[in-house]
Amino acid sequence: MNAAELIRKAKAEGRTALTEAESKEVLKGYGVPVVPESSAATPEAAVAAAEKTGFPVVLKGLGARLTHKTERGLVRLPLRTAEEVHRAATEVATAAGTDLEGFLIQPMVAGRREFVAGLLCDAQFGPVIMFGLGGIFTEALDDVVFRIAPIDENQAGQMIDELRARKLLGPFRGEAPAARAPLVGALVGLSRLGTELPDITEVDINPLLVGPDGGVTAVDALIVIGERPVQKRTIPPVDPVAIGKLFYPRSLAFIGASGTLGKWGYRLFCNVVAGGFKGPIYLVNPKGEEIAGRPSFKTVAEIPGPVDLAVVTIPAAKVRELIPQFQKKRIKNMLLITAGFAETGADGRLREEELIRTAREAGVLILGPNTMGICNPHDRFFCCGSNVRPQAGSTTIVSQSGNLGVQLLDFAEQEGIGIRAFGGSGNEAMITIEDYMEAFEVDELTRTVVLYLESVKNGRRFFESARRVGKQKPVVMLKGGRTQAGNRAAASHTGALASNIRIFDAATRQAGIVVVEQPMELLDLSAAFSSLPLPRGHRVAVMTLGGGWGVVASDLCVENGLTIPELSPELIAQIDKILPPYWSRANPIDLVGEVGTEIPMQVIEALMKWEGCDAVIHLGILGLKVFLRQMIASIEIVDPAQDRSLMAAIPEAIEAFEKLYLKRTGELMEQYGKPVFGVNLLPDVNARTVTEIAGSPYKGVSFLTPERAVKSLARMYAYGQWRDCEK
């Protein structure tokens, strides 16, 4: 009987699970190495089956309702005689009661290394594959890895390598390493099963036993059948071209415009005008009063010209009334700032659903509601709740938190990070994060995507679109709401070990998304990705103005998966000609206080030429101006006779050196394709993370701390590795 027939039979009998024997029959057909076994209806038949199998054996109670046999005392081993088998079968029959349908007899398979593999079905992402440390401590040790199906052999191998207990799969206390091919085959087989058999909701293989010879055997299995969970609501996708038009309006109307300081209808209008928007702007206010020297119109119908985008700030209860007016005026796009919709509870959710239904019927596209606004520096369009105007660039930010989003914009402006566009996505009633992802995919000006997310509307669509985008440009994400809301109730270990955040984490890693833990890391990585070439490997050369800083940076590199290679004899000989004879002759290279204008330039050029490294971090070369200004201030107090013109010339010379140094690093990055990360000696109020380099496709990037530089480099390397694997 094939898998589909077994499932049909079980469903016809009203069952929610296959028996262990049926489960293994299905799994065997999908390449899972299952233990050979036979079934018996009576204790006497069990004895006969055991004698045929050969002692010692394992006896188990068999039945569709016997999903946790060990806990019920329905597994007996090792049984070495016919008498032991008969006695065990009698005791198991008593313990199982009416749930018993028979007995399973298996050979006693030796093995001290137990793993678990399984399948579950998530409402957002669909079939999910799990692999982890198994046995009776599965939940207690919680060492598991997940992947969204389908997976191939390469991804299955990655799952195995990510396990914390992966050393158990190698040579272990005189036992052979686990045979990798059967493990990979089992995970790929589960993936195929999950995509081909939609009636299966969960699979649990525990334990997946590794024997002394390295052989892999599934000795217990459970397949749960039924209806897979489905998403509660699916929002129709939005054309990326339509989203793009929202960020390039030719004319604007502010519905709810106000002359009152502090009101949204005043603040947004002022920000747009002050930001340099060139198109016509129409103000709509029921009183028809003059606002900031401009006329206003009492209704939408009175607006004399066409409107590309309406910015709405009127109360939530009145927004739906605008739709017929928009339809008559042929206004196709609404930026709905107003709150008071689904974020407020059941009544607000109903109000939002009615608004969206009406808007969709009228052909009106709504961004929001409950959004802080949008901006596009490339078109001088700044329609945000905060008066922030970052320079035009290649980083696109979409945030499900408006406040966090405009804070990121403010930081970007301060640090010189160019912005392609910003969108506060709000409640995502019509335009969802999945729509934005597909817009990023086709937008040529976006080189780096930065996301703050708390949830997704369609997990599978988000996963697939993020994976496509990631193959072209990095996606950097901070996830809010990471606390576990509770494990799903499930009959299997696989289901019990899963949680919403775990599945989401697995999906993001698999899609190549670069996940960060803090908001500032979003901007650190956007600075790095948008300004520097990707490292081709993990070898880092460190050049430092102080030995301690070099030690710290080296430790950070190793802790973040990077390496500090030894310098080659040829490179040492070359640097011997540059530095004093007492230099360390090791990586990190301590410049032993030799700053000047030539030495750092010569050393970094030697490092960039060196084939033994893939990236360079320099510490303390930039930021000397602050140190010197402080020193000069002290000298002027202590020794007024010193030449003031000489004192004034020193900071100017250092500034000129830094410009020349950054220009040279840009040329070297272009020539050798290696990223250069800087760490400032001291913080400077005028310094920025990103510095433009005239004539170079790259930019200078310098952080205030070594850990920010190292973390950014490590994540760039990890992203590059993922992208190479996806080619």
Summarize the structure in words.
- It is flat and about 105 Å long.
- It is an alpha/beta fold and 727 residues long.
- It is built from 24 helices and 29 strands.
- Helix 6 (153-162) packs across helix 7 (180-196) and helix 11 runs parallel beside helix 12.
- The model is unreliable at 484-498 (pLDDT under 50).
- 39% of the residues lie in helices and 19% in strands.
- It folds into four domains: 36-108, 2-Layer Sandwich (Dna Ligase, domain 1), CATH 3.30.1490.20; 113-225, ATP-grasp fold, B domain (D-amino Acid Aminotransferase, Chain A, domain 1, 2-Layer Sandwich), CATH 3.30.470.20; 240-529, Succinyl-CoA synthetase domains (Rossmann fold, 3-Layer(aba) Sandwich); 532-726, 3-Layer(aba) Sandwich (Rossmann fold), CATH 3.40.50.
- Helix 12 (346-362) links the parallel strand 15 (333-336) and strand 16 (365-367).
- The strands form five sheets. Strands 18-17-20-19-21-22-23 form a seven-stranded mixed beta sheet, with helices on both faces. Strands 5, 6, 7, 8, 9 and 10 form a six-stranded antiparallel beta sheet that branches.
Ordered list of secondary-structure elements with their pairings:
Layout: H1 3-12, H2 20-29, E1 38-40, H3 43-53, E2 57-62, E3 75-79, H4 82-96, E4 102-107, E5 113-122, E6 126-133, H5 138-141, E7 144-148, H6 153-162, H7 180-196, E8 200-210, E9 216-218, E10 221-225, H8 240-246, E11 252-255, H9 264-274, E12 281-284, E13 296-297, E14 309-312, H10 316-319, H11 322-329, E15 333-336, H12 346-362, E16 365-367, E17 373-376, E18 381-384, E19 392-399, H13 402-415, E20 419-424, H14 433-442, E21 448-453, H15 459-470, E22 475-479, H16 493-497, H17 500-510, E23 514-516, H18 519-531, E24 540-544, H19 547-559, H20 569-576, E25 589-590, H21 599-609, E26 615-619, H22 624-638, H23 644-672, E27 676-679, E28 690-691, E29 700-703, H24 706-726
Parallel strand pairs: 11-12, 11-14, 12-13, 14-15, 15-16, 19-20, 19-21, 21-22, 22-23, 24-25, 24-26, 26-27, 27-29
Antiparallel strand pairs: 1-4, 2-3, 2-4, 5-6, 5-8, 6-7, 8-9, 8-10, 17-18, 17-20, 28-29
